[in-house]
Every structure is written in structure tokens, then in C-alpha cells.
């Protein structure tokens, strides 16, 4: 493993981050257009959320598969091959989705081929960077995705009034193709590493080995609660801003465009959170960083929805902090996995984490939408409608700090961040 200060590491990481940014453009394209697509396709909030959940469901299957494929065939190879597949599926979704059923199927298919830019990328970083600087490197990688989410919001919000939502989707769907080309260039000199198994019996049963690893499972449990909150918030933040803009007097199309633009600003908080969270975890410890970030984001989830009628500048400010804290511990969970499981089991551990984490994340947008539908049916005010919907995210998020505190008490936690825990 090369030290983080090795020649060329900065350029290598920058190229990989640029590739991840491009792949992320299709991740939030649909969320930005929900305020327009829900009435156009005659969808309830539950159905609208279910399309985003279909994406997450496909994504979690993808992440489960690519974890094992990375262990067996190497992270570099899986990263490149899945990039080609995601390029094709993203363009198919953007070109042919025309209603609830087709959008759910095609967006789910897009998610199914998109996981290769995530966990194999983290594995590539773990293979190249020493533990003392790994948190920061992974933080930059996740920050690149947040910048991609923000850019997708800007592109969608700016282009929808001129070329419609489909045109904006096609532009965003070109991102994975650009990401694949960047990855081919960046990784041209990177070895495709396949870690040998220490024992045949262990190698034949990687999942049981991960499930028996209590520190890893506590980290995975905390990540699951984190994913519920983060992915539910990401799916509905543009619609929340659009609703707030509508309350303030904007028309439907203008509100949707404004909602996407304001969400992009909030996502800059996510970008900063990924970088700061990863760097802080290297210096203060993994569990310390998770407890601070997860606790703060849970408070935001319980409070944010009730502010729907507040001035937009207030909402953007709070949302930026919410995004900062909600994603600030994302890279830390990924780093913890690399420090509490053997290298040959990292892919399998990421697979288990993905099934549980993105399984929860797939349900969160749907449940959020069901809460919106139920409160609207009860003729509740927008404050109660959005307040209770965001509370559903905070309730699930509370499990994360509990699991993290238990992990902090375990002797195995001294393996993390050079003993800082």
C-alpha cells in the first residue's frame, strides 16, 4: 500500500473524484423534477417517492454484487465495467421514461448498474492510502459525489424551463459516460488488486465472517440508520423547497426550478461535510466524529420540516447545515470498515453494509411520501405535513448514535484512526 504522500496520489485522487462527480449527475436528476412529474404523471406523493425508492433498491443490489465482484475480480476492473453499464442505463431512462411504471422500472435499472462507482472506488482508495490519511481521502471522494448532486440540481433547474425535464435528464445522463472515460484515464496505471484468502474455509463463507464481526456489524448498523435519514432527505429536499417557494407565491414551474437551485446550494454543505468529517475523523477519532455529526443531523430532521413557511434564505441556511451534518459521517463509516475487517473481506463487508444501509434508504423516500399523503388526506397544514414527514427520518436516525456508542466501548475500536477510536 502506498503512503498518502506518494508522488501522484493527489492527481490520482482528483481524477477519481472527478469521475465520481460525473457518475453522480444522474443520481438526483429525478428528485429535482418531482414537483413537475408528480402532476404530469398523475402520481401521489407515495408513488413519486416509490420511483426514487426503486433507484435505491436497484442501487443496493448493485452494491451487494460489486462488493463480491471486487473481492474476486479486483476493484479497478469492476469500476470500469460497471461504468459502461451505468452509461447505457442512464441514457435509456432519460430517453424513454414516460410514466410511473416505466420510470420506476428504468430508474431502478439505472440504480442497478450504478453501484460500481461507489464501493469499488472506496476500495481503490483503501488500497492506495494509509490509514492515517484514509478518512480524508474518502471524504474527498464522497464530497465529489455531493458536488455532482448539486450540479445535477443546477442543470435540471436551469434547463427545465427551456428544454423540459426530459432534455435536462438526457444532459445529466451523459455524466456516467464522461465518468467512465475519466476513470479509464485515471486508473490506466493502477494495478487491479485481488486479495488472496487466508484460508479456504474463510474465503468460502465471507458473509458469515462479516456477520460474526461485532465491531463491523455495529458500524453497519449505525450506517443503516444514517442511510435512512440521508437518502430520505436527499429524495425530498427539492420538493420541500418547491413547496416553500409555492407558499411564498411562485408558480409551479418556477417553484420547481427554484427548489432545484436552492437544493444545489444546500448540497454544497454536503460537500463540505464529507471533507471535514473525513479529516476530523483522522484527528479526533472515528466514533467521536460519528456521534457529533449524527446527533446534530438528527436534531435537524426533527426540526426542519416545521419551518416550511420560513423565509427561503433561512431554509437554505439551515438546509446547508443539515446537509453538512447528515453526510459528514458518511466517509467515516466506510473508513471504519477498512479498519475492523481483514482486507480480503472488505468487499463482502461493503456488500452487507449496502444491503442494510441502502435497503433502509430505499424505504425512506417511500415512507416519507406516505406520511405526506396521510397528512394531506387529513387536511393538515403544510407545517404539519412536512414537519411529520421529516420527523420520520429523525426517528430512524436515532439508532445510529446508539450503535456507535457501543462500538466506541469495544476494545477493537482502538484499531481505528491509529487508536483514537
Give your account of this protein's structure.
- This protein has 18 helices and no strands.
- The protein has one domain: MFS general substrate transporter like domains (Growth Hormone, Chain: A).
- It has helices at 9-24, 29-40, 45-73, 75-96, 100-112, 119-128, 131-173, 175-186, 200-204, 206-211, 214-247, 252-284, 286-304, 312-328, 330-340, 346-377, 382-397, 399-408.
- With 421 residues, it is mostly helical.
- Mean pLDDT is 84; it is low at 1-5.
Topology:
Blueprint: H1 9-24, H2 29-40, H3 45-73, H4 75-96, H5 100-112, H6 119-128, H7 131-173, H8 175-186, H9 200-204, H10 206-211, H11 214-247, H12 252-284, H13 286-304, H14 312-328, H15 330-340, H16 346-377, H17 382-397, H18 399-408
Short description:
This protein has one domain (9-189, 209-419): MFS general substrate transporter like domains (Growth Hormone, Chain: A, Up-down Bundle), CATH 1.20.1250.
Order of helices and strands: HHHHHHHHHHHHHHHHHH
The total of beta strands comes to 0
Percentage of residues in helical conformation: over 70%
Total number of helices: 18
The CATH class designation is Mainly Alpha
Shape type: globular
Radius of gyration in whole Å, from Cα?
20 Å
Quickly give the structural class.
Answer: mainly alpha
> What is the average of the pLDDT values?
84
Task: Tell me which CATH architecture applies here.
Answer: Up-down Bundle
Features:
Growth Hormone, Chain: A, 421 residues, single chain, globular, 18 helices, 0% strand, mainly alpha
Amino acid at each position: 500500500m502506498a503512503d498518502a504522500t506518494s508522488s501522484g496520489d493527489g492527481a490520482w485522487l482528483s481524477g477519481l473524484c472527478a469521475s465520481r462527480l460525473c457518475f453522480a449527475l444522474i443520481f438526483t436528476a429525478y428528485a429535482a423534477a418531482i414537483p413537475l412529474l408528480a402532476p404530469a404523471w398523475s402520481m401521489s406523493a407515495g408513488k413519486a417517492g416509490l420511483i426514487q425508492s426503486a433507484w435505491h433498491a436497484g442501487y443496493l443490489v448493485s452494491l451487494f454484487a460489486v462488493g463480491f465482484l471486487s473481492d474476486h475480480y479486483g476493484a479497478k476492473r469492476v469500476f470500469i465495467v460497471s461504468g459502461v453499464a451505468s452509461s447505457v442505463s442512464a441514457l435509456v431512462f432519460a430517453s424513454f421514461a414516460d410514466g410511473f411504471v416505466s420510470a420506476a422500472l428504468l430508474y431502478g435499472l439505472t440504480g442497478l448498474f450504478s453501484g460500481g462507482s461507489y464501493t469499488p472506488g472506496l476500495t481503490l482508495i483503501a488500497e492506495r492510502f494509509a490509514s492515517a490519511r484514509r478518512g480524508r481521502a474518502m471524504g474527498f471522494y464522497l464530497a465529489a459525489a455531493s458536488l455532482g448532486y448539486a450540479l445535477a440540481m443546477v442543470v435540471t433547474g436551469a434547463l427545465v424551463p427551456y428544454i423540459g425535464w426530459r432534455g435536462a435528464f438526457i444532459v445529466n445522463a451523459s455524466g456516467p459516460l464522461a465518468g467512465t472515460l475519466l476513470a479509464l484515464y485515471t486508473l490506466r496505471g493502477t494495478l487491479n488488486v485481488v486479495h488472496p484468502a487466508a484460508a479456504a474455509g474463510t474465503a468460502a463463507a465471507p458473509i458469515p465472517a462479516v456477520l460474526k464481526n461485532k465491531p463491523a456489524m455495529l458500524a453497519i448498523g449505525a450506517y443503516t440508520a444514517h442511510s435512512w435519514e440521508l437518502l430520505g432527505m436527499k429524495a425530498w429536499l427539492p420538493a420541500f423547497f418547491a413547496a416553500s417557494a409555492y407558499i411564498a407565491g411562485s408558480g409551479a414551474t418556477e417553484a420547481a426550478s427554484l427548489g432545484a437551485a436552492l437544493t444545489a446550494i444546500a448540497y454544497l454543505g454536503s460537500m463540505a461535510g464529507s471533507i471535514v468529517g473525513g479529516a476530523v475523523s483522522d484527528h479526533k477519532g472515528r466514533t467521536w466524529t460519528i456521534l457529533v455529526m449524527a446527533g446534530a443531523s438528527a436534531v435537524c430532521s426533527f426540526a426542519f420540516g416545521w419551518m416550511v413557511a420560513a423565509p427561503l434564505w433561512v431554509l437554505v441556511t439551515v438546509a446547508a447545515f443539515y446537509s453538512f451534518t447528515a453526510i459528514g459521517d458518511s466517509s467515516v463509516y466506510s473508513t471504519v470498515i477498512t479498519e475492523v475487517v481483514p482486507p480480503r473481506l472488505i468487499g463482502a463487508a461493503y456488500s452487507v453494509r449496502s444491503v442494510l444501509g441502502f435497503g433502509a434508504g430505499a424505504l425512506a423516500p417511500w415512507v416519507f411520501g406516505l406520511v405526506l399523503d396521510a397528512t394531506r388526506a387529513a387536511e393538515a397544514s403544510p407545517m404539519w405535513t412536512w414537519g411529520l414527514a421529516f420527523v420520520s427520518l429523525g426517528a430512524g436516525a436515532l439508532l445510529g448514535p446508539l450503535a456507535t456508542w457501543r462500538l466506541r466501548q469495544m476494545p477493537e475500536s482502538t484499531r481505528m484512526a491509529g487508536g483514537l477510536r
